[in-house]
Write a structure and sequence with these properties.
Distance between the termini: 48 Å
Largest sheet: 2 strands, antiparallel
Strand content: under 5%
Strand order of the largest sheet: 1-6
Radius of gyration: 46 Å
Number of helices: 18
Oligomer: single chain
Shape: rod-shaped
Mean pLDDT: 80
Structural class: mainly alpha
Helix content: 55-70%
Order of helices and strands: HHHEEHEHHHHHHEHEEHHHHHHH
Number of strands: 6
Length: 389
């Protein structure tokens, strides 16, 4: 009794006893401090400064389900697609026309020398060899006695052989094989060997090139489509899955998972605490405005304000307890634990003891707090709908 009298005589006690505004400020300060202390621990993650190659000082388990794109593996997959993409070719029809023109020009050069009456046979051999043709004296004598029309026919026959081998398309990889095939086709002809030599000499002087050339635009389009269709490589980590054990050497992939879980981020603790305080003050202001304008008789009584704050704090305490139970549970049913948070019970108590409309508002505020702590919209929806019903 003596202590109670001393407290009542205290100036600070008298200051608060005689001023309702000061009392309300004190209530708000105490309530906000208690809520901040209760929730900040759940919102501020543990920070571990680790790099690839370090030894993990603790065992780290995923506190939630995460799924993210493995950029390195995705880049490797795309590089593999780019390396193995099918090259698309286009048929360059002008190549066969160029062959035809070259054959005609080479044939004309040989005929000009062969049918030049002012030149001796030895001179003709020397000139033709100088032009790159490998013909002997006997070859030249045989050819100069051959009618021009027959040499033209041989040239046309050579063009037909080249066309038959190139009509379906020949790329750089199969060009050598195609040339060998043309040589083989000429050697299989049932004609004078000198005529075969004439055709082979012309062929050896032709600038042979592939008529099936890579279509860069079409190939790039094909590559882009394949890369677009390829699913990115995703890393999936289940809740409570062990990421790394204590004493293990960390790999780059484990570091990436740890980063996604938020353990290595530099957290702004002040910003988190300030956010909790601001949220709490905003909700207090909304409830105060409602009571002051619609239920002033409740607003004027300190006991009603204290009761409301106690019920709110109990609700947040239950939320924190259930979330902690879920975090430490290894059961497959652990995600369902948060659905058991008694949000509806607190809302019903507020509706019965104070005001039913205030119960609805309280249910909405408590549901938002559940969302802040769990990060799951499903819990928010179920808490609010359950309380509303």
């Amino acid at each position: 009794m003596g202590l109670a009298k001393k407290i009542k005589k205290n100036k600070i006690y008298k200051l608060f006893e005689g001023n309702a505004l000061y009392r309300r400020i004190l209530y708000v300060f105490i309530f906000t401090a208690m809520v901040t202390a209760l929730l900040s621990g759940a919102l501020i993650p543990d920070v571990i400064d680790l790099e690839a190659g370090d030894v993990s000082p603790v065992t780290i388990e995923a506190d939630r389900y995460i799924s993210f794109v493995d950029e390195e593996a995705t880049a490797l997959r795309r590089a593999e697609i780019e390396e193995n993409v099918r090259t698309i070719y286009r048929l360059e029809r002008s190549v066969l026309q160029e062959y035809s023109e070259q054959l005609d020009n080479l044939s004309e050069k040989i005929k000009q020398v062969l049918y030049d009456d002012e030149l001796l046979v030895n001179q003709k051999v020397n000139i033709l060899n100088g032009l790159g043709f490998n013909l002997t004296l006997i070859d030249v004598e045989t050819l100069e006695e051959t009618p021009e029309s027959q040499l033209d026919a041989l040239t046309e026959r050579l063009e037909v052989i080249i066309r038959s081998n190139f009509i379906a398309g020949v790329n750089n990889e199969s060009l050598l094989f195609a040339m060998e095939k043309i040589n083989s086709d000429i050697n299989l002809l049932d004609i004078n060997p000198v005529y075969k030599k004439f055709m082979l000499n012309i062929l050896s002087s032709v600038d042979m090139k592939a008529n099936l050339v890579p279509d860069q635009e079409a190939t790039q389009k094909e590559l882009s489509e394949q890369i677009e269709e390829a699913e990115p490589v995703r890393i999936v980590v289940q809740r409570n899955e062990r990421v790394v054990a204590k004493g293990d050497v960390l790999t780059p992939k484990q570091i990436e998972i740890i980063n996604w879980l938020g353990y290595s981020e530099q957290v702004n603790r002040f910003a988190i605490i300030a956010s909790v305080i601001i949220y709490t003050l905003v909700f207090i202001m909304l409830v105060s405005l409602f009571l002051r304008n619609y239920r002033k008789e409740l607003y004027d009584e300190d006991k009603n304000i204290i009761l409301l704050m106690v019920l709110f704090f109990l609700a947040l305490l239950f939320i924190r307890i259930f979330i902690t139970i879920q975090d430490f549970s290894v059961s497959i049913y652990a995600p369902l634990i948060n659905f058991l948070i008694p949000t509806a019970a607190i809302a019903m108590l507020i509706a019965i003891l104070l005001d039913d409309k205030l119960g609805y508002i309280s249910a909405a505020i408590i549901s938002i707090y559940i969302g802040i702590l769990t990060g799951q919209i499903a819990y928010v929806f179920m808490a609010f709908v359950g309380s509303f019903v």
